[in-house]
Amino acid sequence: MRSVDVSGDVWAALLALREGREEDGGAADDPAWSIYEPLARRRGKPFVLAQVGQSLDGRVATVDGDAAPISGPDGFAHLHRLRALADAVVVGAGCVVADDPRLTVREVAGPSPVRVVIDPSARIPPDARCLSPESRTILVRGEGCAAPASHETICLPRAGDGRLCPVALLDALGDRGLHHILVEGGAATIRHFLEAGVVDRLHVCVAPIIIGSGAPGLSLAPISRLSEALRAQTRVFDLGSDTLFDCAFDRD
Ligand SMILES: NC(=O)c1ccc[n+]([C@@H]2O[C@H](COP(=O)([O-])OP(=O)(O)OC[C@H]3O[C@@H](n4cnc5c(N)ncnc54)[C@H](OP(=O)(O)O)[C@@H]3O)[C@@H](O)[C@H]2O)c1
After folding, report:
1. What is the C-alpha to C-alpha distance for residues 9 and 166, in angstroms, rounded to an integer?
2. pLDDT tens per residue, range 182-192
3. Is residue 138 included in any domain, yes or no?
4. Has residue 251 got a pLDDT over 80?
5. Which listed residue, of 55, 96, 118, 227, carries a Cα 20 to 30 Å from 102's Cα?
6. Residue 107 is assigned to a structural domain of this protein
7. Is residue 33 part of a domain?
């Protein structure tokens, strides 16, 4: 397993790539470059990376909802690097209600992404930290739900099962120039993107703790045969406090 050391030069080159400039500093055989380059490089088409920070037994919170911090300091910095390289970070209403995240970049140098909150029924509190003016926020609502005057809103039709279609959301974000998307959770939101087949990369960041019960990081519809399981080309990296499983899905 290769260790990841994100040098100042490599990080500067990745931020330049995010801005559409190519600078010396990134080498293909450098673990840090190979992890972050796919999200940083603008290719003129959508790129979706979903990330989950979980315990060894696949939990993201205790039964009482205590979720912070599961990731160690290096896993947390990794998440902030992903935010800095993405155009937009997407979370579900459950995550906002449970954790009240700010969704900004604070652990590394770099810009904060546009915050996109899927809140079909307008249940997140008006004082949620992700609604603060420090960064742009887009609310995603179900069609027919009142759009607040306070924030930019995308209204999407609900499918028969009540879901808002992730493909329609990606199209709407693309119309706003937001093509590189970090799906930060929680489990239901990641599930909808995975089941829609629109995830290019899944980062599972595992902290060496066992919670034993509580909310799962990933949860998909039941299957009966392992041959139906999702498979990805997976590389494993030692981040320091956490272990990263970098899973690539073939979408071409
Ligand atoms: N460790 C991590 O990486 C991480 C990251 C984020 C969150 N979390 C944890 O995850 C838990 C919350 O996860 P969760 O699965 O309960 O909630 P969630 O995924 O954050 O939010 C789910 C809700 O968002 C809305 N939603 C999301 N996608 C939708 C879609 N395509 N169509 C329609 N509605 C959609 C729905 O809201 P309505 O119910 O209002 O319809 C849905 O119930 C918390 O315990 C939190 O601590 C962990």
Report:
1. 35
2. 999 899 999 99
3. yes
4. no
5. 55
6. yes
7. no
